[in-house]
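Hi P.,

Sorry for the delay on this. The queue was packed all week, but I finally got your sequence through. Input first:
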Amino acid sequence: MKTLNHNSQGFTLVEMTVSLGLFTIIMFIATSSFLAIVNSDRKSRSVRIAADNLNVALEDMSRRIKTGTNYYCGAGGDALNAVQDCIAGGVNTLFFNDQSNLRVKYTLDGATHAIMRSVGSEPMIRVTSPEVNVSDLRFLVSGSALTPNTVQPIVVIGISGTLGAGAASTTFKIQTTVTQRVYDN
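Then the structure:
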């Protein structure tokens, strides 16, 4: 008859089951953490891309307004030389003449929640990407009157809305002031 040697080395079945269970729990926690980090990175990238798009759209809008003339805010500003200030509350549509003396229109499209632009007789095009949901666009114009006028025209642009979609969205409010580059005399 053989006797068991208590000095034999190795794992028992119980030790192996416990260590395998601990390893599985630790790997599950590590994998969950890794997936949460990847998901968070994906969300932050989508918000950053939308913010970059909004920044490019606002910079383009500011550059065009800065080099423009004959500002008119509100409906009915299609006429090439129409000018009108709007200081109280602002409106969501701005007309002005660009450097080529074409009438430019910026407006908020309530259906798509996008900033739209048309130049001359071109159709309206979307300026902001679908990831940018603009809920409010305001233009305040002062100093656009032709005569007598000793004030350089100033356009204040206010935009608010959300960047991204769903749980990854973040709200924003941006305001910038643009002064006409051409001296107004």
